[in-house]
Amino acid sequence: MATSPSELTKDGYELQFGTNTLTHFHFTTLLLPQLLAASPPGRVVNTSSDGHRLAPSEGINFDTLHGVQGPASEGLRAKFRAYGQSKVVSLLRV
Hints:
The chain is an all-alpha fold. The chain has helices at 15-37, 75-88.
């Protein structure tokens, strides 16, 4: 997707993070009751791309999850850093 880090979801989160992270989490929570009720219990497998390699070296910068304004939001590099950051979460195991 590589949207501008200044674009926000209707809830005020950076659009890339909202699309690649929050929507997947929300969809999984909606499915959870049916998955647990199934016999045998179902499971969710999230897959991703190598996009996490585009993330900033520090990983998730929580200060930018509500968007970035000004020069930091401009250019292809900023877009792909935001994309990479949104993919880092898919590496977490719970």
